[in-house]
Amino acid sequence: MTHFRPATALAAVACIAAVTPAVSASPPAYRDASRPVADRVDDLMARMSLQDKVGQMTQAERLAADPATAAAAGIGSILSGGGSAPTPNTAEAWADMYDAYQRAAIATPLGIPTIYGVDAVHGHNNVQGATIFPHNIGLGATDDPELVERIGRATAEEVAGTGIDWDFAPCLCVARNDRWGRTYESFGESPERPTTMASVVTGLQGSTLDGPASVLATAKHYVGDGGTTGGDDQGNTEIDEVELRAVHLPPFRAAIKRGVGSVMISYSSWNDVKMHTNDYLINGVLKNELGFTGFVVSDWQAIDKTDGEEGFTADEVRSSINAGLDMIMVPYDYQKFMDLLRAEVEAGRVLMSRIDDANRRILTKKFELGLFERRFTDRSFTGTIGSPEHRELAREAVRESQVLLKNDGNVLPLAKDGGKIFVAGKNADDIGNQSGGWTITWQGSSGPITPGTTILRGIQQAVSPGTEVTYDRDGNGIDGSYRAAIAVVGETPYAEGEGDRPEAMGLDEEDKATLARLEASGVPVVVVTVSGRPLDIAAELPEWNALLAAWLPGTEGAGVTDVLFGDNNPTGTLPMTWMSSADQQPINEGDDQQPLFPHGYGLSY
Ligand code: GLC
């Protein structure tokens, strides 16, 4: 019989234990959904390498990294830039794409799910067939935060129906100069409406982030993007701190109070300091003073632009991360970003505590969203995309966003019955034009780009069977036999700096020619402007009997005709002062200029 001495016996047990595959112990703490999120984050981070952590701070465009590549590289977030859609561009294809990224991510050793961001800024606007709601300038005209919260909820359902879990919205910019190409992304020129419209955050995020169809919202673009000199997109906001705090900060306070999960930094500068390197405003004000506990994401290739040169450098990586950015929307050269950041940490120029803080913020949101449990698309929401209920909500929002600015002789509302109505204008029968930028593609485009109801179709549906509706884009064929002419004019789609208007801000020559034909007929002319901002139309206004500002209504153009034909009394009021002349820009409430129509103006029947 072999007698083991205690020491030998212990050694023997140790050897046996070492070679015997451990019977699977209970799952690691971070996978235990019953544990507090903070504990799960701690446990997961303790298992992560520096490379893992740098990966979580990296966001790549889907076109730069397919699911297998993204997982192999340890990339923590994927985005679709404006118009970056799967083929075919259907809700099901989006959901399949999202699920493929998640399947690859959770198959990695630590199985950290990705978080996938899109710009659903007026509905799930990248997706064919989605409900396209009015852009923010129109929602600002409603001055109805409860409606906007419902729009947030409907948008979240359509976004979640494609799997996507993060929405780069709302833009809470306060547009001070209407020359800015992003004026239509603003709820208003004063902080009050952007502040109350932060209600959309609650709609998007739901009562809890892991609730059904909840998606992470993004307050953007922090801070002062709407205050640049000349309305120059990505320009320089040259104001003192008192004005920055009074005008541009309140909407972010409101969004933080509503628990917004992420904040996107603005491309712009504040008094010549790039926001993406502004330690005082990000670390000092946003995170410390305002107590923002979510995570901070850069804008697209924004860190490339801080030194005025193409591409990004180690200095730009270091200065943005040390300023308080937690995740960088690279979006293509992600390996270079990861290598540079890792090198900065290893050189001690970015502290590990900064890396850990960023990871803690990001992972906390991933756990709170339930991504470790609810990994794939909840296809029960896929059918909400472009649903009749959502389109009806959008039509309600279009109605409420209409601002009646002139109504001589009470020419409006138009009768539905009898006679002939002439419709003209390049924006009368064009879903793309009435939706504006950020629709199917980044810049948007004219034409039948997605299913919806044009304003012309809305007119045809609104009138009685005995009423004849004639449409000619240019106004050719009108004569005195018509009882009214409706001219739907304004702007064609644009986004961001492409839409800056440093020069004239009036109607184009096509619209002016169309209006001249209508006016020459002697028929009462009702003008409907479809535009992303107030336009310089004071010189033409006397020839018009009525003027209705429709803004960028989206797919449900019948909401405009609900007001034109009196099914709804117009209640919208101007979220932006309406200039008398482009020379007045910037023109805002309280300055000593004489507008054509003041901020808050709007007529009713
Ligand atoms: C854009 C916009 C930003 C958007 C981001 C991702 O350049 O500035 O609003 O969320 O890139 O598309």
Automatic annotation (TrEMBL):
<dbReference type="InterPro" id="IPR019800">
    <property type="entry name" value="Glyco_hydro_3_AS"/>
</dbReference>
<keyword id="KW-0378">Hydrolase</keyword>
<comment type="similarity">
    <text>Belongs to the glycosyl hydrolase 3 family.</text>
</comment>
<dbReference type="InterPro" id="IPR036962">
    <property type="entry name" value="Glyco_hydro_3_N_sf"/>
</dbReference>
<dbReference type="GO" id="GO:0009251">
    <property type="term" value="P:glucan catabolic process"/>
</dbReference>
<dbReference type="InterPro" id="IPR002772">
    <property type="entry name" value="Glyco_hydro_3_C"/>
</dbReference>
<protein>
    <recommendedName>
        <fullName>beta-glucosidase</fullName>
        <ecNumber>3.2.1.21</ecNumber>
    </recommendedName>
</protein>
<feature type="domain" description="Glycoside hydrolase family 3 N-terminal">
    <location>
        <begin position="50"/>
        <end position="364"/>
    </location>
</feature>
<dbReference type="InterPro" id="IPR051915">
    <property type="entry name" value="Cellulose_Degrad_GH3"/>
</dbReference>
<dbReference type="InterPro" id="IPR017853">
    <property type="entry name" value="GH"/>
</dbReference>
<dbReference type="InterPro" id="IPR036881">
    <property type="entry name" value="Glyco_hydro_3_C_sf"/>
</dbReference>
<keyword id="KW-0326">Glycosidase</keyword>
<keyword id="KW-0732">Signal</keyword>
<feature type="domain" description="Glycoside hydrolase family 3 C-terminal">
    <location>
        <begin position="403"/>
        <end position="605"/>
    </location>
</feature>
<dbReference type="Pfam" id="PF01915">
    <property type="entry name" value="Glyco_hydro_3_C"/>
</dbReference>
<dbReference type="InterPro" id="IPR001764">
    <property type="entry name" value="Glyco_hydro_3_N"/>
</dbReference>
<dbReference type="GO" id="GO:0008422">
    <property type="term" value="F:beta-glucosidase activity"/>
</dbReference>
<feature type="region of interest" description="Disordered">
    <location>
        <begin position="582"/>
        <end position="605"/>
    </location>
</feature>
<dbReference type="Pfam" id="PF00933">
    <property type="entry name" value="Glyco_hydro_3"/>
</dbReference>
<feature type="signal peptide">
    <location>
        <begin position="1"/>
        <end position="25"/>
    </location>
</feature>
